[in-house]
Design brief:
two-stranded antiparallel ribbon; CTU1_C; mainly alpha; 6% strand
Length: 62
Amino acid sequence: MGQCEQCGYLASQRICKACMLLEGLNKNRPKTTIELAVGIDEEESSSTLMRQMEAFQLTNGK
């Protein structure tokens, strides 16, 4: 028995199964991230829109 070349864990192969799985998962990982920043103004306008939609639904009987 040898050790994994990447993590040093006891393994019968050159690279252990855990490192192989992690490599497969990270290979398809996107290179960029998507971040959403909601300011106070945007949050207030969203709340206003929700109230307007609720009022519209109440007046239409739904």
